[in-house]
Amino acid sequence: MDCCRGWSARARALGASLALVLVLAPGAAAATRPRPPPPPVSIDTGPAAAQGAAVVPPKAYVLVDADTGAIVDQADDHSPRPPASLTKVLTALTAETRLTATDSVPVSARAAGQEANDVGMLAGQTWSLTDTLNALLLVSGNDAAMALAERAGGTAESFAVMMGNEAKALGFGDADVLNDPAGLDDDYSVGGGNLVSARDLAIATRALVADPTLGPIVATPRYSFKAPDGIVHNLTNHNKLLQGRYAGCIGVKTGFTRRSGRDLIAAARRDGRTMIAVLLGAEDTYGWATKLLDKGFATPVAAESPTDRLPQPGHPAPATAPLVPATTSAGASGPASHRAPARARSMVGTDVDGTRWSTWSPAAMAIVVLAMATAIGLRSRLRRRRRALRRLQLGL
User: Fold this and answer.
1) pTM score, whole prediction
2) Which are the catalytic amino acids?
């Protein structure tokens, strides 16, 4: 009987350990199976679409030939809308223009306290610019966005002015509102958040894709680095088109808030041509992006509009504030309504489509599993000893 009880306890411990592994590394099993192709989505909103299932278009979108700047397709592309984390394209351009590759990025309390998604920055740390930019663009770290803003502008509020200047230099043409470096639009956002048109986001994306530093980052499927606290971060790009779903994909950025909905900037390069699709408030971001990009590559250059085009890429705006390193005390600057509350750090987040991602290293996961299994085993042994003692007391 004791042998059976021991085996049962070990089985329960093993089951709990396996369950923990599945919770911490949900993508491990899925990574061994081929991903099914995305369902076909038609962008035809005319009679052909009416014959099949209902098609819900994005609230705004634009398709651009990045080489010529020609608008190939669009819907409501001049209307400023909440862009969520697509903001980080402009944040990266603004910060990278004003910093050098050797600059470091101090982490303030305000940056470390940003709500998810975050990459786990801690107040008082100092990160490299390269690691911070990768955390910003691959996994949409809001803490990385705030740290960059404070490093380049001194405060997030000053950085908002810089973003506005950068937007003017790039040639933004709509009535955009630029306040928050991360793209938040809730009570914790800087100045209430942002409003940016799909067309202006395409202008920023065209500049980012051509940038020799930022272009390769958004095209990177995975990036690993060791943070100042020794934690190894394994970042997987949130853009699933980079995971073999679209040939020639070179980025760029996902985004989601309750107010904005699901957003996506997708770019691809084929046969010497580069297409950019910007979608705001889309139910099926990847399906629509795929169809739009296909339409762009199927459109001959000679058939593109000769007049409806993006402005020529501008020159970076000059810095309007000194490069003041952010500190823990400076991180608490700004109105209290702009500060995110302190909270426990999480190494696990959720992508825009509900997919869980983790920055745990395999070694760290193994340690956690071993510790949990040991704790479960000790607890089972203690229970068995208590039952044995009770039988002795009862004279059984």
Assistant:
1) 0.71
2) 85, 88, 140
